[in-house]
Amino acid sequence: MKDIILSSRNFMDYIPKNQKEYRSFIRLILKYADTVCFTVRPFLDSLDEFRRSIWSAMRCSIADYGFAQAASDPKGVKSSLILFKKDYCLCDFLQHKNGIFDFTEEDPGTGIRLDDPAFLKNGEVFLYTVTHGKMCAVTEDVCSRLLTVKERK
Q: What 3-state class would DSSP assign to 89?
């Protein structure tokens, strides 16, 4: 998996308050993003597990995958990362969520779930979420655009 750069710019918290605000939020984010990275838990033995999961419709959107260990994970526990190119399937999936933290669904066959979406532009993370902690960190420039759109409404 290619290196993903975490921006050194300041991050500001932004959490959509309701489903209508989430829909505006995700449309703006998807206009800017070119890829989205999800953490897949538990660890995938192979991409075939993902391809057989309830998210198999997004299999053609996969750009790359790899493995990582989060600082909060116990020693030796690692997660899979799947990088998706922005296409119709990915956009449709995200636009039909109830919110940016709506990632609790588990595949009944494999037991995997998608978690912590990170949105990238040119390999640089501009929005990162921690699903279980309900944290959404957005770079300052993108957050300013979100707040400007919100104020116009």
A: helix
